[in-house]
Each structure stands twice: as structure tokens, then as C-alpha cells.
Amino acid sequence: MKKIILLTLLLSITSVYSQFNQEAPWLKQLKASSENSKQQLTFNQIVNAFNDYWLDKDYTARGSGYKPFKRWESYWSNYVKQDGTLPTAKELWDTYLEVKNQSNTQRSNSIADASNWQPVGPFTHTNTGSWSSGQGRVNVIVKDPNNINTLYAGAPAGGIWKSTDSGSTWATTTDDLPQIGVSGIAVDYNNSDIIYIATGDDDAGDSYSVGVMKSTDGGQTWNTTGLNPGNSPTSMNDIYMHPTNSNILWVATNNGVFKTTDAGVTWSNQNSSGFSNGTAGINITDIKINPSNPNTIYAVSANRFYRSLDGGESFNVVTSGLPFSNISRYVLDVTPANPNVVYVLASDNGYSFLGLYKSSNSGASFTTVANQASVGDIFESTQTWFDMAMAVSDTNENEVYTGVLNIWKTSDGGNTFTKLNNWSSPFSSTYTHADIHYLRFFDGELFAGTDGGFYKSDNAGTSFTDLTAGMQISQFYRIAVSKQTSTKMVGGLQDNGGHAYSNGQWKNYYGADGMETAIDPNNSNNYYGFIQGGGGLYYSTNAGSNLTGAIGAPTGENGNWITPLAMSNNGELFAGYSSLYKLVGSDWSAVSSSFGTNIDVLEIDEINPDNIYVATNSTLRKSTTNGITFSTINTFSSNITSIEVNNTDNSIVYVTTSGPLGQVFKSTDGGNNFTSITSGLPAVTKNIIKHQALHSKNPLFLGTSLGVYRYDDDTLTWQLFNNSLPNVSVRDLEINLNDNNITAATYGRGIWQSAIPFEVPMDDIKLVAVNGISQLIECNATLAPDVEVFNNGQNTITSIDFVYTIDGTPNSFTWTGTLASQTALTIALPSFTLDKGLHTFNVTSNIANDAFAQNNDSETVNIKSTSTGTTLVVNTFETPQEELLVYDEGASSQYWERGLASGTVLNAFVNSTNVYGTNLSGQYANNTKSYLVSECFDLTTLVAPILKFDLAFQLEQDWDIMYVEYSINQGQDWNVLGTALDTNWYNSDTTSGENGTCYNCPGAQWTGSNTIMTQYSYDLTAFNSETSFMYRFVFHSDQSVTQEGVIIDNPVIEGSPLSISEFQNPSFNIYPNPSSGVFNIKTQVKDEFKITITDITGKVVLNKEKQFIDNTGVQIDLSKYQTGIYMLSLQSKTSQIFKKLIVK
Fold this sequence. Notes:
Elements: H1 25-34, H2 43-53, H3 66-76, H4 89-108, E1 118-121, E2 126-127, E3 140-143, E4 151-154, E5 160-163, E6 171-172, E7 182-187, E8 195-199, E9 212-215, E10 223-224, E11 236-241, E12 249-253, E13 256-260, E14 268-269, E15 286-290, E16 293-300, E17 305-308, E18 316-318, E19 329-334, E20 342-347, E21 353-359, E22 367-371, H5 372-375, E23 389-392, E24 400-403, E25 407-410, E26 418-419, E27 436-442, E28 445-450, E29 453-457, E30 465-466, E31 476-481, E32 489-493, E33 497-502, E34 505-510, E35 514-519, E36 527-531, E37 536-540, E38 549-552, E39 565-567, E40 573-576, E41 580-584, E42 587-590, E43 601-604, E44 612-616, E45 619-623, E46 631-635, E47 640-645, E48 653-657, E49 664-667, E50 675-676, E51 686-691, E52 700-704, E53 707-711, E54 719-720, E55 730-736, E56 741-746, E57 751-755, E58 765-771, E59 777-779, E60 782-783, E61 786-791, E62 797-806, E63 809-819, E64 824-828, E65 832-833, E66 837-846, E67 861-866, E68 885-888, E69 897-899, E70 915-917, E71 929-933, E72 942-954, E73 961-967, E74 975-976, E75 1009-1019, ...
Parallel strand pairs: 2-34, 59-67
Antiparallel strand pairs: 1-57, 3-4, 4-5, 5-6, 7-8, 8-9, 9-10, 11-12, 12-13, 13-14, 15-16, 16-17, 17-18, 19-20, 20-21, 21-22, 23-24, 24-25, 25-26, 27-28, 28-29, 29-30, 31-32, 32-33, 33-34, 35-36, 36-37, 37-38, 39-40, 40-41, 41-42, 43-44, 44-45, 45-46, 47-48, 48-49, 49-50, 51-52, 52-53, 53-54, ...
């Protein structure tokens, strides 16, 4: 049941400028050139003004301000009306009301909505590879004045969030509203149940303002006030309450300051003579109240400071001491430490730091306390039109914090500034995400709202704590879900990179703006994700547990903000730039010729991957040659937003088009002709369409600006599929047939999932899993896999045909028996043996009259196999038999290679012999993590084993590294071998995040240069009880700067053999061995023996001079000694026998 009282007043709009930040420089220029025109600006006019502005500027620089507009452009491009303009807030609100009425009608007509959406997150995340980890933008945070444990936070497109435990947990109650942003919050100091919010996203325009809303029950429900959708300005930010009269509030808007004296029932616009000589429409970007005199109010516009001495009834411009030109933005703050003090922070017309100004007389006049000449550039960017914040300590008037890209601090009133953090050092104790939108003190605590979340410092900026966990506010562009399980997914977030989900955890594995993503259908651990503009493809081979590597864009290409990315069912990855590209190894290869413009949408036929569809603007093209050649098959009246090929009958194709009146089209002849199937849809934008396979009714799901709709061949109309889903824009959908559910990626409320209706066919076999093949490293592998199948049909199955493929070679096997309907069975396949190297294995199942072939295949399993190594033997790498197992994390080629080094530096010390190197002929690649793996060794045959090898390296100091890991359980767990303090071992103990260097350093590694071939060694005595010891050389490079890398030769495990005087004597029986400490000795000899036991150092730990032993046996207890290897000597008058004992 909806809790909100529906808003019934119509929403008006004052100008198009409210749809984006009015202080953006290109909008200022456009407004100036168009101020005499009464025509509403078109979307293209705004975009063209932006493009013209950036012609002579570097848009790639961090903090340039380029990205915020590109996000806005990408989002609102699907809202463009037929006349080229964007919809007004009134039109958007009317659409929301139409959807609400449709929902009520659907219920009253007993039309079932079978959805049951549940939130998946991210509620929290772990940084596993991002250089700027975060979760979602926060605009504002306030503390309940009556309860220090209660906090409220506002998101740009995710509503308001409340915590009652100081930020440990959060909940929202605005999901029943249309997608709203919150930029200002005020809590009544007389009654915590009364809360006001200033709606909209004042910095980036991700959502419209619907006025000031009010709650009287602690935020559980919300009502309109007198400043409502019918009369509200279209953007607002700060809202403040009178400290002694809670009926009085002020709110800053893009149309001046509004004031209420009756708790929000009515509002008046305070555009008095002080505001530009009475001209309405002044964009007030910040407002504050004098801490000791609420009649004194301060406000700023882009280039003016205003002061009121009568409680906001009138305002006057203050010019004394403040700049009056070359200004693009002001922010201000006050402090109870000295109520007469006002600080103003200013940016210049280039949107960089201009100065900090201080008033000690309640804003009557100012003095300059800092500028670029005195303290440098504390903004580090040119994007202050997007974000700029300042806070003054509430206990020290000279302690001021500023934020644009990072947070800076002065403790001496502006004479000097210190940089507190770095946006690209996410493991630092002072880290906050980049782009500081909000800074404010509450009870000695500094709150920061950033593009990545909410951070708090309670120690004057010495450290910050991330309190975003629990807020599901992520703005997703796209999501990809594993074919095998919907519990694995990866998506791209606004300014928070790629977030991967597996094992119930979200992992932020790369930074920037995460975009289109993909998961390998044949290996659900391989995740891929673009950043903005297709500028880099970031991949992980362990479901996001770390960033494996990255691949740059094709030379000369610059894709759309959301560059299309799609993977075929056979694992080929394609990307859409001005041409269609395919990933080959670690490089993009052009498949098609240029289309003359960027590809907007890319779709690959799941049944026949040779069929590829692309859209450029309103033109639909098709290839039947796997992308080599394309033909134009259709042109629509507006731009194409989505393409979907029916997953059961690929002659059926669906297309959605842009705009509130955009349509859904269906073709039954492969895209040559289309008819509209838009019936039942209101004027929502159509973002994404998906077809549900394995269902005779061909269900379709549509992600729109206000939730999800469903359509099938029976209803022939679109119906809401929205139960429990917030009223939010759904940017992407994915269907998983194994779990029979659908996943929605929203722009502001994260990821949601719902079950979907499914049907049971007469005959269908589903291959569930392949068992018996691990992801570990097999030593001399003989494998005996089995498959788990499920009878997904109604009839009993009596025969199943399997084809299992090893390294591309198919093998057949037929099972016969009885498998009842809706039951599972595990079936053993024939065993097989593998040589050393990398292998692939997959299985296909089939039965007679199988209804759905889509669920018959397993994912391809990658198998790593090696052999048993021989200790005391040097591996010279001179013969193919001496090759080692090599593999990389990700799609890149194998960078460890055997041969002659031919580079310009390292080869001089190799003496013309074969080595293993990261790149034998030159420099290594960026973003590479590659492994050179030893054979399996039995160290119990040696006393004091030691690993030795020759090594030379040239690596980027403290960024690119090489180290050794070991495993004693076939690669299930790998640990770094040794430390930088060990003799003749690593040369660096740098750790990740230390001083902003080395994203990948474990704290023990080689880095920098030693180009002379040097023998290194490590004592393995601690492992001499291990029977399957492996080690591997790990090479890891970062995102930029390469050198010649690493060469390795002559690895060997040396030591003293235990078999010098030991022999096997069948007349003696010692058991168990290995043992936890107690050994039994029996013999048929029946004699008196001297028993001596020594450890591996030769120290005697047990000595018995005369011990009679026969077939009844004696017992020796070594359980009090450490685990390891011991030598047993049994000496009689005529012989001496040696035996090795292993205490485990």
C-alpha cells in the first residue's frame, strides 16, 4: 500500500536551464546568446554548446568537469521529445501519475503482477582493484538536533536515507515517490518527527525538484508543502530552520530564496531589491544563518554575496573586500566558535581556485586570506560548477576545510593549507572519494558528501570513516549476469567503476565511470567492464576478487559515453566504436568497416552468433557474417535505444526507440519489417528490452524510466511488473533461466531481482553442473568427472547422450536408466589423463524431443596441469620437456615465454641460453598479472631444502613488481614466500596504498632494477614435511609505464637427501607414518636395539640404549615435538637400520 499522499498540483517549469546546472560555462554562454529568445532550448542546442566549449580544452584531465555533463547527456538523451526539447517537470510528473493510475487499474481488474522485487545492493562493498573506490553519490548529510545517533542523508537520484545508529545501518522511505533527489534536509529541533527535504539534484541534474516535502512521522511518509510541484523552482539546495521558531524556514533555489513562516503551508519568494534590482530568477547556490542572530542571513549566487538583517525579508549585495568580476561560483560557511565570522570561497571564470575571504563583522566586509599566489591551487580542478564545498570548524574559527577534487585544510585562518587526502589512494586512512559536494560540522565531526558516498572525520581530518554502507544508492549504467547463476554479476556505476558480485559480496574491482559489462558464458569467473567512452576494458578472472588487467581502446577510437559491449555464446567479445571490434588476445581487432559514426546499440544473436545487429542513431544494420559486412535493414523515426533477438526463434527481433513517445517494435522476418507493439505503455522512456527463452508465450520485459513492464503473446499488451520495485529508472535488465529470475539495474537505487513465471515442457534435460574437475592445479592428472543433470520436463527420461570435449576434441558417452520428472541425477563420465599445460573441458547433453537446447551445455572448465618435479636437478629450460606451466589472469596472451632474451638490457647477461621472461624481445605489457608455475615437489626426501634460481629484472620502481608464492594444496591457497627482510631475497617491502604508490604490492617483492643475472635463494626447511609443494613466480604490472621486465633461469630445489643410509627392510614395520606423533615399531628379527631419534639439524631428541623389539612391537611418542621430519636409527650388534619419521 502506498504511503505517499499523491501530489495533485501540476508541475511548472521556468526554463530549460534547470535541467542541468545553470552555472556550467557552456550554459552561461548559451543563455547569454539566447536571452532574447522565448523559444525553449533543444537538447541538441545544449549538447552543441557543450561540444563547442570543449574544442580547445583538455577533457581527459581529472576534475575538468567534462564527465558530469556527459553523464547528464547520456541519461537525458532518451527523454528528447519529437520537437527536440526535453520534457518539462509537469510532463514527467503527469507520466508518474499515469503509471500510478495504471497500477491501480491493473489491481482492480484482477490482473496479476507476478513480480516480487528484492534488493541485491550494493549495500556495502570491498575494494579489490579500484583506484577510486566508492558506492554512490551523497549530496547532503545532517544530524538530528535532538538525537546524536540519528542521521539523514540525501542522494541525487536515490531519495532520503535515515540511520538511527550513527551511520551503522540505513533505511529509506521515499521509494513510493517518483525518482527524486535530495539536496537539503532540515529536522525540527522541537520534534524529531518533523523533517523537511529540498528535492532535486542541484549539482548535476540527475533528478527534478518537486519542491519542499515534509514528514511528520520521522520520515515514514511524505507530503507536499506550499512549495510544491505546481509552483516550485526546478532546482533547490540548502534548507535551514529558524533556531527558536521552527515554523520559519528558508530554502535556496534557482529562483532566489523562499521563506515560510507557517511550517511550510505557504512560501514567499524573497527576490527583493537586493537581488539584482528586483529581477527574479537569481540562482542562489548557498545560504547560511548567523549562529547567534537568526535575523542575519547570508546567501550567495554565482558571483554575488548577499546579506539580510531582517530574517530574510530583504537582501543587499555586499561588495567590500570581495571580488566583483572573474567569479564563477561562491560557497560560504559560518561557525558558532565566532558568530561574527563568515568565510566565502570563490572560483574564477576558469572554474579553478580564486580565493578565500573572511569577514569578522557578520558579513559587512571581507578581507582576502588566501589565493593561488599564497597557498597554491587547493581545488586541483576546473569543475567547481559541479562540486565545491567548504566547512568551518564549530570550535575553531581558524580551522577551515575546502573540497572540490580532494579535501584541504587550514588551521591558521588561510595562511597555509594542507592536503588531507588523495582521491586515487583508496587505502589511505584519510581517503574520501573524489568530487566533494558537501562539507559540514556537527558536534565536532566533519561530514563529507562525495561522488562515492558519505565520509566522517572525528579527529580534524586525521582520518575519515566511510559510513555509506547500508545505503543502496548506486547509479548503474549497465549490468551483466552469469549464464550459469544469477548470484554472479558485474555492473558499471556512475563515477564508481565496476562492481562485481559473487558469493554474496560486492567488489569494486576498477574505478572511473563503470559502463557496459560482460561475463563469459563459458567461464562465469571472467568479468569484463568498460569505462566511459570505451577508454579501457577492465577484466577479472576471479569474479572480481581482484583486477586482473586492462586493455586500451582501439587506436584512434573514442566511443560513446556508454560504449556497447557484447559477448556471444561462444565467448567472443565485441565492442562498438565507429567500427565493430572483436577482442583477439589482448588487442581489439576491427571486424567491420567504419559506419561514419559511433555504434549506439550492439546485439548478438544467441542462437546464431554470425547474426549481429548494430544501431547508429535511428538506423538499424544487420550482419550475417559475424560482423564482417553489414546491410541497412531499417530506419526509425527516433533513435534506437535497445535491440533484442528472440532467444527461441531468431527470425523475431525487437527494437525500442527513444523519447517519451518512443515505441516498441517487433519483426518476424529478421528485422526487415517491423510493427509496433507499444500498446499499454504510458509516456515512459524505453531503455532496455529482454526476451525470456524456454517459454512458449515469448514473455518480454521492458525497463523504463518508471520501472519494469511485461508483455507476452497472450496478453498482447504491456502490464506493470513492479511489485516492491522503487519508482526509478531501470537502465538494464538481465534474465537468468537457470534461476528463473530477472535482474534490474537502476540509476539511483542499485540492483534488484525478481522471480519470473516459467513453464514446464514435455521433454527437457537441463545440465546443472560438472563435478570432479577442480580449478586447482593437477599434478600428473587423471580426472574422473561427473555431471549433474535435471529432468526439466514432464516425461520420464530413459536415455541421455553426452558429448564431452577435451581441448576441442569431442568424445561421446550415452547413459541409460530412469530419470523421473523434476528430479536430478549425477552421472559419471569416463576418466582421462592430461599432459602438462592448460586444457579446456566442457559437456553437452541431449535427449530425444528436447524442448530447449539452451540449457544443455556446461560452461567451459579451464584445467591447469603440471607434472612431478625432481629435486636436486637444475631446470635449464633448454628442452621442451623443461617447460613450466604458464597462465595469465584474463584475456591477455601469456607473457611468460621460454626462449632467448633479445631485449636491449637484460639479454646482455643471459649468455645465449634459454630463459623464461615476461617479454623476451622488449617491454612487458601494462595491466598484466602472469604466473610461471613450478612442478609439484616432494620435499620430504630432503634435509634442509632450499630454492635457488637466477634472476634479472628491470621494473617500474614501486609500481610493477615480481614476487614468489607457494602452495601446499594444489593451488587452492597461495601465499607470498618470504619477506623483504629475508637474506638474499626481495628488495622491497612497499605495500599497496603506501604514499599513493603501488596498487599491487603485497609488501614483499622485487621492483626497480637489477639487470645483472643474480642467484637468489630461500630456505624451505619449514616445508620439508610437504609432499606436494609448488611455487610460482608472479609478475604484476600496473596501468602505465613499462620496461623490459623479468628473466629467470636455472631454478632448483637443493638439499641433502635423506636416503644416504636409509634402506627399505621388509622385516620391519613402522606405522602409522606420517603420524601425529605416536609410532609403532614391529619386527620379525626379535633382537635388542639401540633407538636413536634426531631432528633434521642432527640434534638427538630421543635415545634408548637397550630396547627389545619383536612382533608384539614397541611404541615411540614424539607428540610433544614440533611437526617435521625426524631420523630413526635402530642399531643392533649386527646391523643398523635408518628410517624417516614424519610428524604431521
